[in-house]
Amino acid sequence: MRTLHVVAHPEATHHVEKVVGGWHDSRLTPAGVRAAVSIARELRARIPGGAEVELFSSDLLRTLRTADEVAGLFGVEPMADRRLREKSYGEAGGKPQEWLDRRFVPPPPPVGERMDHDEGVAGAETKGACARRVYAAMDEILERPCEHQIIVTHGGSLTFVVASWIRMPIESAGYASFRAPSGSITTLREDDFFHNRQVVGLGDTRHLDSARTD
Measured in whole angstroms, how far is the alpha carbon of residue 174 from the centre of its chain? Predict the structure, then answer.
């Protein structure tokens, strides 16, 4: 049995400053750090002691800080992978969200070419480019025979983690959206007999109740 525990990093400075995230290297807020502690405790409670655990993370500061809390409880080193980053918004990264909203071209068409749609922002990554790098990272993660794998990523790229897990073709992933709130844990599981891949839980935030009251 393989289980993937996919973490969407908690509150970061770009959330409260209302600026565009993407590859803008924002940090966790104090509330985000408290949530990261709760995430680590919840994962420790879910994963049996003595189980083999691997930890992967986007290489941005907000995900690495979250991964550090997890690493401390499991005694493992996070493996940073830039392919697990959020979609890049090019020159919009770090600018006010309303700046991007004014320049954003019409959304992709309901049918047809959706993955390589140009959003009209210089240097921005297409949805297809983001999907292809996340899929590539997932291919390498899943080649590793490990019972429990923790992946710390971003809300947007999490869609492609899940899509890759269920082996959705990339062109079909252009229609997919698996919404997981900041600080949530998504649980993916594969059985050893049929090798069916399940989405056991999507965007669970119950563990964050203690972070709000601590």
Answer: 17
